[in-house]
Write a structure and sequence with these properties.
The chain is globular and about 65 Å long. The N terminus is likely disordered. It is an alpha/beta fold. α1 packs across α9 and α12 runs antiparallel to α13. It is built from 13 helices and 13 strands. The longest helix has 19 residues. The protein has a five-stranded parallel beta sheet. Helices cover about 45% and strands about 15% of the residues. The protein folds into two domains: about 180 residues, P-loop containing nucleotide triphosphate hydrolases (Rossmann fold, 3-Layer(aba) Sandwich), CATH 3.40.50.300; about 90 residues, Helicase, Ruva Protein, domain 3.
Length: about 325
């Protein structure tokens, strides 16, 4: 597909594209120095950051989910907060609450940890459904409403949530509306033997994540996010994304197909991927590369589709829908 010419009001110079791409690559290289993670997972995390999305990492305990989140937060000079989810965690513990100030005889808002730039929500599926639902407004609308008053969240704002597989004891499956708020859902898997051996050697002297220093600041990340929004996407590319979404909805194995929100997130992710690749326009290749991470976790299969993976449905859609 040949990209359409950029609108003069939205055009970016190659220097701006290169600058935004360099910011993301610096963060990637910094994380890679402390955490053994595949390039594919690391790319998707950076794409979510630049595309203003949120990340959900699901895997077994001990594979480095929290270490990856901590490495990301230490690589950017910004406000960082961590929420350790437990069954007795309350929504107010996350978003904040109004506290009565006796000296001034009035209530004042005391913000919760959600008001940081990068918020690690560790083991999110160990929190109760009531607490999980407290994140819905934060992740979609970027503000918090407490006692009818709205409070804006910081920018950039990224929720990096980890969870154990739902089969683990003491977990509460995330509702569909909550899962739909995450731009990408990733799985890290076990490291390769060589990487695992290097990890053991590297941790003999302590936690390597604590040795990381910031290689980017809030201003640089915001500039990269602004550049990603202005990456060009042709009408043909947008039609291609819509066709992919409709194919998942029409699949007889699917009870709940990809939502319109997922199409918006797939487009934003494709633009961010193009920027990381040094381009000012998105291509069908970007969409196809990200389709699994963005779409698969949003699908709900019919009961009769036992043994079918959601990833298989997305792969079939990518194979069946031609990129015009």
């Amino acid at each position: 597909m040949t990209p359409e010419p950029l609108d003069p009001g939205e055009a970016m110079g190659q220097e701006e594209v290169a600058r935004a791409s360099a910011v993301a690559r610096r963060i990637q290289d910094n994380i890679r120095a402390a955490v053994k993670v595949t390039d594919a997972v690391l790319d998707d995390v950076l794409i979510a950051l630049i595309a203003e999305g949120h990340v959900l990492v699901e895997d077994f305990p001990g594979v480095g989910k929290t270490a990856l989140a901590r490495a990301l937060s230490r690589s950017v000079d910004c406000q960082f907060a961590r929420v350790q989810c437990t069954a007795d965690l309350l929504p107010a513990d996350v978003v904040g609450t109004n506290v009565y100030n006796q000296r001034e005889s009035r209530f004042e808002f005391r913000p919760g940890p959600i008001f940081a730039n990068i918020v690690v929500v560790d083991e999110i599926n160990r929190a109760s459904p009531k607490t999980q639902s407290g994140l819905l407004e934060c992740m979609q609308e970027r503000h918090v409403t407490v006692d009818v008053f709205s409070h804006e969240l910081a920018r950039p704002f990224l929720v990096f949530a980890t969870q154990n597989p739902v089969e683990q004891e003491g977990t509460y499956p995330l509702p569909e509306a909550q899962v739909d708020r995450f731009m990408v859902r990733l799985s890290m898997g076990y490291p390769a033997p060589a990487d695992e051996s290097a990890m053991l050697a590297g941790h003999e002297g302590g936690d390597s994540v604590l040795e990381l220093e910031a290689v980017a600041d809030v201003t640089e990340v915001l500039a990269a996010q602004d550049a990603a929004r202005r990456v060009h996407a042709s009408q043909a590319l947008r039609d291609y994304i819509v066709s992919l979404l409709r194919h998942t909805r029409d699949d007889t194995r699917v009870e709940l197909g990809a939502s319109p929100r997922s199409g918006l997130m797939l487009l934003r992710a494709a633009k961010a991927a193009a920027l990381l690749d040094g381009r000012d326009h998105a291509l069908p290749d970007d969409v196809q590369h990200l389709a699994q991470a963005v779409l698969a976790h949003r699908l709900m299969l019919v009961p009769e589709a036992a043994g079918i993976e959601r990833a298989e449905v997305v792969a079939d859609a990518v194979s069946a829908v031609p990129a015009l």
